[in-house]
Design goal:
The complex is a heterodimer of chains A (161) and B (405).
Chain A lengths: L2 H11 L5 E5 L6 E4 L4 H10 L7 E9 L1 H4 L1 E10 L4 E10 L4 E3 L8 H12 L2 E3 L27 E2 L2 E2 L3
Parallel strand pairs in A: 2-5, 6-7
Antiparallel strand pairs in A: 1-2, 3-4, 4-5, 8-9
Chain B lengths: L11 H6 L13 E6 L11 E7 L2 E8 L7 H5 L8 H5 L6 H16 L7 H29 L4 H21 L8 E2 L2 E2 L7 H24 L2 H7 L7 H6 L5 H5 L6 H4 L25 H27 L23 E9 L2 E9 L8 E5 L1 H6 L2 H5 L4 H11 L3 H5 L1
Antiparallel strand pairs in B: 1-2, 2-3, 4-5, 6-7, 7-8
Helix pairs in contact in B: 4-5, 5-6, 5-12, 5-15, 6-7, 7-12, 12-15
The chains are: A alpha/beta (161), B alpha+beta (405).
Chain lengths: 161, 405
């Protein structure tokens, strides 16, 4: 199914205002939605017979910097039986980057959300085990934020040597 | 500098930096936490497993990762696209060519030059990537033998892998971390005589593989150790984002080389082996290993076809310059792009965001197959024995460099 048909399906079965905008430049093409409709949309994309996005290939957290004052979470979905792609973007406020988890739909989101939390401090509500995954638990700050500066000392070791 | 304190020892350091998920007071009276790794040969690197056990039985496995975290994504955000390639090598250090191929493909797509790449370049890319895939599978098979108590396959496989590494060293100058596939082309053309030497190697390798099958995977001891162990059902595998030989071992014919047909894979003829449960249940450790062995045969097929192409239609010419299309300045238009390719371990994906204003990616996220494959370990090891846990970790074939990135 091509992007336009997927979009048509979404608009036909869910509210018209759910898709806020479309990014034609992206590859695969992307839709931008509000975080409040994330749960509804993802369950629909996963369950609907002729869409059936059974795999979440990649979940990316992204910081647009202090000036833009937004963060994004980008979901790359793929349907194995139908061989179609979709990119879903959720834009968050930088001051409170919180959105619902999708672990109940795709188990693979578990570690990917933990990584986004670890690197960018995005909180996923309802995640069963939201701990840091790559960085040490006693590390200060979130390293992939654009304004991140390392702590000066970590266990008495000067970091910026 | 010499007298400077390097590390202040404190009892609490480990507990603070990587706390156990289960504390003694949370456990039932018969349960016990056993810590495996991070320095243990059967964890295949610096992986730490917190195992809650009930006698010999595994109740829960909590993997602790991040010991080999080298900030790939942070580095990629601070250096130009072409300079990231050596870092990409260091993610999956056993299959650097495959990762480079995926990365180069992604940036080429962003620049819109993916269709202009000369066929000879593409054939060389596929050739070296498949050689590297063989090398990666050899390490997977050899070390899995060592995990399950057979040391001979390990020596045999590393012996054969050494030939591959020397071929690739001849082509690129490095044994494992090549920086050979560049954005828009290659570092150099293949050295003169490479194709002939490669065919010689293939002739040498074929009987060795059937020898391996007899010695190793059809061996009764090995079958007893791995059949019906760590069964990964197909629905769980898809839902948990498992890809590569692990997913194919569970019985799904899913190979991005076939599905996407990227590079010149759509011109080549090869099969996709899937697990059939020949020795036990579909999706057990034996199936995954068997799929890897079969994939070695398929890779040999691909290499042979590439060699035919490289000696025939796309043969070496005097004026061929593999760096012809390598851009001097890499500045893609503002866009988001997700690119994926089939690595020996599974689907390697890169997500790029280019802002259109600089030579540096705004964000470069890598989706490592080992990372996703490892996340399923608790589901398949739960309820088994500790000895089986070791067999399961080996059958996942993780490279910690890619898990932690």
């Amino acid at each position: 199914m091509i992007f336009e048909e997927i979009l048509e399906q979404i608009n036909a079965h869910l509210s018209d205002t759910l898709v806020k905008s479309i990014d034609e430049n992206a590859s695969p093409k992307a839709i931008v939605i509000d975080k409040s409709s994330l749960d509804e949309l993802m369950i629909f994309l996963h369950k609907k017979d002729n869409l059936y996005f059974d795999s979440l290939s990649c979940l990316t957290g992204l910081d647009n910097g202090v000036e833009a004052n937004t963060m994004e979470v980008i979901y790359n979905l793929y349907s194995i039986p139908y061989d179609h792609h979709l990119m879903v973007k959720v834009i968050l406020e930088r001051t409170s980057p919180i959105l619902p988890t999708v672990t109940s739909i795709w188990k693979t989101a578990d570690w990917q959300e933990r990584e986004a939390y670890d690197m960018l401090g995005i909180k996923f509500l309802g995640h069963p085990d939201l701990r840091r995954i790559l960085m040490p638990a006693d590390w200060d700050g979130y390293p992939l934020r654009k304004d991140h500066t390392d702590q000066e000392y970590y266990r008495g070791i000067k970091i910026d040597y | 500098m010499a007298n400077q304190v390097q590390y202040i020892f404190d009892d609490k350091n480990l507990r603070n930096s990587e706390p156990q998920k289960y504390k003694a007071e949370d456990l039932k009276s018969e349960e016990m936490v056993i810590n495996i790794g991070p320095q243990h040969p059967s964890t295949h690197g610096v992986l730490r497993l917190e195992v809650v056990t009930n006698g010999e039985e595994v109740v829960e496995v909590v993997p602790h990762i991040g010991f080999l975290h080298r900030c790939f994504e942070k580095h990629a955000e601070s250096i130009p696209y072409n300079q990231t390639i050596p870092f990409v090598d260091r993610m999956d250090y056993l299959a650097a060519m495959n990762s480079e191929h995926a990365y180069a493909m992604g940036v080429e797509k962003m620049l819109g030059i993916q269709d202009k790449i000369p066929k000879r370049v593409e054939y060389i890319r596929v050739l070296v990537a498949e050689l590297n895939r063989l090398g990666s599978h050899f390490v997977a098979l050899g070390s899995y033998g060592a995990d399950t108590g057979a040391l001979t396959p390990f020596f045999w496989m590393l012996r054969d892998r050494e030939h591959i590494l020397r071929l690739l060293e001849w082509a690129s100058g490095a044994r494992m971390l090549y920086n050979y596939i560049w954005i828009g082309g290659l570092f150099y053309d293949l050295p003169v005589g490479f194709e002939e030497r490669c065919s010689e190697f293939i002739t040498y390798l074929k009987p060795k593989l059937s020898e391996l099958e007899k010695l190793f995977i059809n061996n009764k001891i090995f079958v007893d150790r791995t059949a019906n162990v760590g069964v990964l059902p197909i629905d769980l595998a898809i839902n948990a984002g498992v890809t590569g030989p692990m997913l194919r071992g569970s019985g799904l014919k899913y190979d991005l080389r076939k599905i996407d047909g990227y590079s010149v894979y759509n011109e080549l003829d090869f099969d996709v082996p899937v697990g059939k449960g020949k020795m036990g249940t579909v999706g057990d450790c034996w199936d995954r290993t068997w799929v890897r062995v079969e994939e070695c045969h398929e890779s040999i097929k691909i290499i042979e076809q590439c060699l035919v192409g490289l000696k025939g239609d796309h043969k070496r010419t005097r004026d061929f310059d593999p760096q012809e299309l390598v851009p001097k300045k890499i500045r893609p238009k503002a866009q988001d792009l997700y690119v994926r390719s089939e690595n020996p371990k599974g689907e390697l994906g890169f997500f790029f965001r280019a802002d259109g204003k600089s030579d540096i990616p705004f964000r470069c996220k890598s989706r490592g197959p080992s990372f996703m494959n490892l996340s399923v370990i608790n589901d398949i090891a739960k309820g088994g024995l500790i000895a089986d846990l070791i067999a399961i970790v080996g059958s996942i074939d993780i490279v910690l460099g890619e898990v932690d990135r």
